[in-house]
TrEMBL record:
It comes from Catenuloplanes nepalensis. GO terms for molecular function: kinase activity. Pfam families: AAA_33 (PF13671). This is Kinase. Keywords: Kinase, Transferase. It comes from the Bacteria. Gene3D superfamilies: P-loop containing nucleotide triphosphate hydrolases.
Length: 191
C-alpha cells in the first residue's frame, strides 16, 4: 500500500448488490474511508434526475467530491450505477488524475438476478421491475485496466473479500487513530 489514498469504484445495475458491498467494505476498513453513494449525492444533495435528456451536474459533482476526500487523505469507495453514457469521462479523468491506486469493480449480473436481489432487500425502494428494466444496461464496463467483474455467483462475502483483497484496503490500517487516540471516541468508549 502506498502513502496515497486508494480509490475504489463499485458499479453495477440497480439491485446488483453494489451499495451493500460498498457499505460493508467501508465498515470493515474502519475510519478514514469515505463512502460516496451516487444516489445520495445525486438524488438527495442535488435533487437531480438521472436522464440523458439533460446536461446533468451530478457526474462532475460526484467526481469533485471524490477528489476532495482523496485530497484530504481519505480512501474513497464510490458506488452507483454510474452509467458510462454519463459518467465514463469523469471517472476516467478521476482515475487518471489520482496519484494513488485506483480499482474498479462491476457487478456483472443478468436482469433477472438484479430483480431477485432487489426483492430480498429489507428496505426495498419504491420502484418496480419495469422501472429496473428501463435502467438496466448489460456489461456497462468502463474499460479501465484491471477492472474486476463480480459474477452473478458471488455472494456478499465473496464481493467484499474481492474488493478488500485486490484494493489493498483489507491489509491497510485505518487512516485515523480512533478510537484509541481520538478524545471524542475515547470518551464514547468509556460510556
Amino acid at each position: 500500500m502506498t502513502d496515497h489514498s486508494t480509490l475504489v469504484l463499485i458499479r453495477g445495475n440497480s439491485g446488483s448488490g453494489k451499495s451493500t458491498t460498498a457499505r460493508e467494505v467501508r465498515r470493515r476498513y474502519g475510519r478514514g474511508c469515505a463512502l460516496l453513494e451516487q444516489d445520495q449525492l445525486r438524488r438527495v444533495v442535488l435533487r437531480e434526475h438521472d436522464s440523458s435528456r439533460i446536461d446533468p451536474v451530478a457526474p462532475a459533482f460526484i467526481a469533485a467530491t471524490a477528489r476532495a476526500a482523496l485530497g484530504l487523505g481519505y480512501h474513497v469507495v464510490l458506488e452507483g450505477i454510474l452509467h458510462t453514457e454519463r459518467y465514463a469521462a469523469v471517472l476516467h479523468d478521476l482515475v487518471a488524475e489520482h496519484p494513488g491506486p485506483a480499482h474498479a469493480y462491476y457487478f456483472d449480473l443478468s436482469f433477472e438476478e438484479t430483480v431477485r436481489r432487489h426483492h430480498t432487500l429489507p428496505y426495498r425502494v419504491g420502484f418496480t421491475p419495469e422501472d429496473m428494466r428501463g435502467w438496466y444496461t448489460p456489461r456497462d464496463l468502463l474499460g479501465l485496466a484491471g477492472e474486476h467483474l463480480i459474477p452473478e455467483s458471488a455472494g456478499l462475502e465473496d464481493a467484499v473479500t474481492l474488493v478488500l483483497e485486490t484494493s489493498g484496503l483489507g491489509a491497510a490500517p485505518p487512516r485515523t487513530p480512533c478510537p484509541t487516540r481520538c478524545p471524542h471516541c475515547a470518551d464514547a468508549v468509556q460510556l
